[in-house]
Amino acid sequence: MINVRPGRLPKPSGSSGGGRQPSSAPLIYPAPKMGLITTAGLADEISGAAAVLDNWLPTLRGARIRGGSAKAGLVEDLTSLISAFRYKFATVEKLFMSTSSAIYDVSNPPALPDAITADVDGLTGGDWSTFQHANSSGGYLIAVNGQDERQVFDGVAWSTTPEITFEDGDPTTSATFSHGWVFKKREFFIKAGTLDAYYLSLTDNIGGEAKVFPLGGEFSKGGSLITGFTWSFESGDGPNSYCVFVTSEGEAVVYAGSDPEADFVKVGVYQLGKPLGKNAYLPINGDVLVCTIPGLRSMSSVLQRGTDQPALSQAIEEEWSRAAVSTGDGWRMTWWEEQNLILISFPPTVVVPDTTFVLHSQTKCWSFIRNWPANCFGTREGRLFFGGLEGIVWSADATGSDDGQPFQATYLSQFIAAGKFGQRKAASLAQMYFRGKEAPNVMLFARADGDTSIPTQSTVTVGNENASVWDIGLWDVAVWDEVSSLQRFNNRQNVRAHGETLAVGCAVTSSGPYQLTLQIDLATLQTHVGEMVA
Length: 534
Fold this sequence. Notes:
CATH topology of the domain at 24-66 and 409-529: Jelly Rolls
Number of helices: 3
CATH class of the domain at 24-66 and 409-529: Mainly Beta
Largest sheet: 5 strands, mixed
CATH architecture of the domain at 24-66 and 409-529: Sandwich
Number of strands: 39
Region (Disordered): 1-25
Structural class: mainly beta
Low-confidence stretches: 4-19, 469-483
Shape: globular
Distance between the termini: 54 Å
Strand content: 35-45%
């Protein structure tokens, strides 16, 4: 007699048993070395890029959390600060900021609540254009605003001398100069509301006779001159330098030579796009970047390929466009050289409130700073400051909180399909690595199919006094591991998201008097494959 024992049917191929969906290999999300890209589609799957990067600053390794902000000073007229400009010559370095009626030295402000007194008062405008000009007698900071007499700082005090004179019959005064720059040791200026530029007759002079250089015949779109600059392939003022004049309609005429009366030769007229202000440009690394309504343009790119070349701001095109359309003017570019960061600020707008666009000068990667009411930025001795409302001078990227209040930094990766499009996946477990000095209180989360909503992290992370790298080594100048020992932290948390494409993110809330030392590294997302979507 044969005994028959009960048995089990063999498992179907690929079954995980227990009625659970089969697990797939973890999705891998590299550190966001490519920065913020808000224009990506779901099918783009850009590895190493972020869909959200708020209050993180781009670095060569990826992104590090920004520091906080603290009140550093208060100007006596208690009105909004409009411009910031630095003087640096020999051993003297000063930072100035202006309101609509005064210029203030904010280099070493008195302790609050004492106010900073004005170096120059009784003014009628605060939107200054400044440049530095050195000759055998010293270094000078020249400032013009199109409303007040030209101001000159000689390293000790401001004055309106040496004066600028004009040819007989020319009613122009230095108060009509709205913008200025130095080209091959000669000062150039723009007369507000016209297509006329002026230049000093003699090189290396700080004052003296100015002659008109009419440019009305060079531009087909009309408008008025709004800005100008030296553009050099050599990162200086050498023989391969050009003098550029830009109109409010976005036309730029480029000249070679050194003397408008003797050897100026027109190279050509180029279309940039309407500029977003007279200070919305930055000479850097042998090029000049210009903020225009269509986007951030590179002069070298425009000269070679015109405006058909994608703008450098293409990665953040939607946010750029909203800010540009809602403001139209008053943008400023500040190079924080010690950190390899370019900060782009614009007038307050409810469309993009309390936001600064940040660009890494080497990688050309983007991020956003939120919650800083910055009208203008300036640097001094490697430190960053900004001017805000009600006459407040702020120290930036220096503490663990914003004016004593916690702030949240948020990262969300780009979306990955992880297999076939049309097949749903379920995220169950997120893992993210960080490099830093203190274990962060992190909230991990997952999102699906383009959902960029952000959770709120209520648990704060407080910086350690002994963990700060400020004044010991600068980000991207000294590699962290060479500055001091960093730890690698691994955070694992259960998450939930369902969709055809998945992304992983984190939220960190910084608080306290000391800046956090924290950088995003690799992340993974464990998923389960579901049914095909009809």
